[in-house]
Amino acid sequence: MEIDLGRFQRWMSAAIMYQPNATAKQAMKAKDVAEEISFDEALKFIKPSKTLNQYERLALYRSMYILRLVDVLKIDYPALAEFLGEDDYPEFVDKYLQVHPSRSYNLSFLSYNIPNFIKTAPKIKDRGFLYDLASLELALSYVFDAEETPVLTKEDIAAIAPEIWETAKIIPITAFRLLALKHNANQYLQAVQDEDKKLPKAKKIDSWVAVYRRDYKLWRLPLNRDAYKLLSDIVAGKPLGEAIVSAIENSHEKDVAALQNQVFKWFQDWVSEGFFQKIVVE
Amino acid sequence: MSKNRWNLPDLGFGIGLRTVHYSHILDNNPAIDWFEIISENYMETKGKPMYILDKIAEKYPIVMHGVSMSIGSTDPLDIDYLKKLKQLAERVHAVWVSDHLCWTGVAGTNIHDLLPMVYNQESLKYTIDRVRKVSEVLERPLMLENPSAYIEFTNSDITEWDFLSTLAKEADCGVLLDVNNIYVSSFNHSFDPMEYVDAIPADRIVQYHLAGHTNKGTHIIDTHSDYVIDPVWKLYERSCQHTGGRATLMEWDDEIPEFEVVHNEVLKAKAYRHQPEMLTVGA
């Protein structure tokens, strides 16, 4: 009895990865058409044991596949898993893996498509909130794995000649992300991290947050609309003078002097938090 | 003590480096002989895991153990992966690099499991070629571990121990002998584990793995979630009679207890080491 090894591996791989809600036999039948190998033909190549038949032996791999990746994704998305709950979260992961099976040796990459999946998959309840929550948790993952870069200090800032600031561009550290959210995802994540007994309900509210790493610890700093606007322009590479003018022009704050003072304070805080790595003068 | 093929050192008794033990290790510098890392956990991160690994590698010998080389897959070898593996090995001064006798995916997907191989002449020849290529890219011998398996194939006509022994000789690779995996597979497939242990050439064995497992009655799952059971210690003892002892490592990956619990478990292995007997090993 001969079978091409590649065909057999594709069949077995499909039997493990797909059709989670079907029985093992149904799952394999669903995929064997695509693989041009009949289920019964392929199954002949698996030996039964003294206690388990071929289906049961194959099903062990299927169940371990799902359990393992459910656990792995929970590491990156603990708040998402909490929100979906014990029943819906594994089902969510099942559906996700059918659309986005792992294509890398690195398990970190497996989680990268979760926000986009939430945006586009059918029948996602609380889609907007979940998208924000997943985007926030993914930002934390990116920041966790980002390269360590030097941090601009107050002394570095003090050494810059005043006339240079107008055209200076300020480069953020690599371990930094900015998010504009439309839901209370940051509040929910904080409640999960604090192990609050009563978690907040999902609700629509504009919020802004900086995600960053300092001394290899992850932090989140809530921002207001004006601070986010200024910081996002700086991160996008606008010269500092231009970014500040834009922030003031777009602000709802009527008292320009107060806003200028506030901008100065924000900038001091951001330097203290280690947001920036260097100043580029062109 | 008998030597391995490459005169690689007997590192003593180590444990798998796991995140839950990072603080303990950094704060206490425990008196442990060496650590084994899961290679892939450090291959795409430039954050805290790599920072900590660099610190630990300054103080302890590091061995790299991979889970995604997929040596038995019909997909082409991932050369980019192998190059990154080599870079990491150079960075942490890995004493050796190992992976598993298995496949982990096909058609570009990764199941992240150690899937069993068909053991026949065709797959043996195929695997020998692949191991040779890997060794060329890594510029060092590859060590391969026998996996736990829950399926056997009707088109396998070579035993796993004969397959692994021949592969080691023909491809000039080493063996990371996991005695717990031998026990698990022997239960699931109904073979004599001692026959397996006796068949592996001592000069190819570079390292041992020890672990606990979960017996479900009808089958055993290799969960790495418990202490080593007596029959597994017996297999370890038997193999050490052939080799005189090799670098030995305790794996604990689920419900991981405190560092000292895992460390103490591997130190029990000292009691099972003996000087090699004049046993005829391997054909």
Please provide a written account of the structure.
The complex is a heterodimer of chains A (282) and B (283). Chain A has 282 residues and is of the alpha+beta class. Chain A folds into two domains: 5-113, no CATH class; 141-280, no CATH class. Chain A is built from twelve helices and five strands. Chain A has helices at residues 5-17, 24-32, 39-43, 54-76, 78-99, 114-120, 127-145, 154-158, 185-193, 225-235, 240-250, 256-272; strands spanning 169-172, 176-183, 204-214, 217-223, 276-280. In chain A, the strands form two sheets. In chain A, strands 2-3-4 form a three-stranded antiparallel beta sheet, sandwiched between helices. In chain A, strand 3 (204-214) and strand 4 form a beta hairpin. In chain A, helix 1 packs across helix 2, helix 1 (5-17) packs across helix 4 and helix 10 (225-235) packs antiparallel against helix 11 (240-250). The radius of gyration of chain A is 25 Å and the shape is elongated. Chain B is of the alpha/beta class. Chain B has one domain: Divalent-metal-dependent TIM barrel enzymes (TIM Barrel). Helix content of chain B is 36%, strand content 15%. In chain B, the strands form two sheets. Chain B has an eight-stranded parallel β-barrel with strand order 1-2-3-4-5-6-7-10, surrounded by five helices. A two-stranded antiparallel ribbon of chain B has the order 8-9. The radius of gyration of chain B is 18 Å and the shape is globular. The relative contact order of chain B is 0.15. Mean pLDDT of chain B is 95; it is low at 278-283. Classes of the chains: A alpha+beta (282), B alpha/beta (283). The interface between A and B is large, with 47 and 42 residues.
